[in-house]
Write a structure and sequence with these properties.
mainly alpha; Recoverin, domain 1; elongated; binds calcium ion
């Protein structure tokens, strides 16, 4: 019973993160955030922070990269 509760909370937590990522931020709905989309969502973001968030340096922010950055406090 406790395990079921924990996994439900985890799923809800993941779903709300995905919702925030998709809602308004991913303007062209290609599943990743471009630099322009990140600038729109985080006007105060610097190149330094963007590069730190884009851990594989491919120029786009994936849901995984965005989630890690958000949870680590890099993006607020
Ligand atoms: Ca996009
Ligand atoms: Ca990337």
């Amino acid at each position: 019973m406790k395990n079921i509760l924990i996994s439900t909370v985890t799923i809800i937590g993941f779903a709300s993160a995905a919702l925030a990522f998709g809602e308004g931020m991913d303007a062209d709905n290609d599943g990743v955030l471009s630099e322009a989309e990140m600038m729109a969502a985080y006007p105060a973001i610097t190149q330094e922070i963007y590069d730190a968030v884009d851990t594989d340096s491919d120029g786009n922010i994936t849901l995984e990269e965005w989630t890690v950055a958000t949870e680590s406090g890099l993006l607020k």
